[in-house]
Amino acid sequence: MAPTFDHASSLGRELTDEARTKRLETSDPRATVEAYADRARSAFYDVGPQPKILTTKETVAALRQATPTATAFWAEKLGNVESLVFEDIFARIGPNDISSEATQFALRMLAHNQSVIREVGLG
Question: Which phi-psi region, left, alpha or beta, contains residue 114 (left: φ > 0; alpha: ψ -120 to 50)?
Fold first, then answer.
């Protein structure tokens, strides 16, 4: 389940702080942190007739179909991680290594991905 939690976009690492701020503050549902996370691709592929890279939601859905018990177990575990755990991790990163905008963006993205995993993984 780890690659679905920090997927290929790596919590917006390629975005500028200006772009992060716009996504954090926008009222346009197509430009939010959540929309960004929903479009991101995982490290998993659909091996069907037309192979494609899966999104986080598609990955969790495929896992749930293939191994429902294990997926539900891990979705519950990930879903129950308190936001304070993530906040504490980011609080330990020095301001020279990560901006407050990057921290806010990453925390919101983690919260959204956690919600998607909980929703799809637990059904």
Answer: alpha
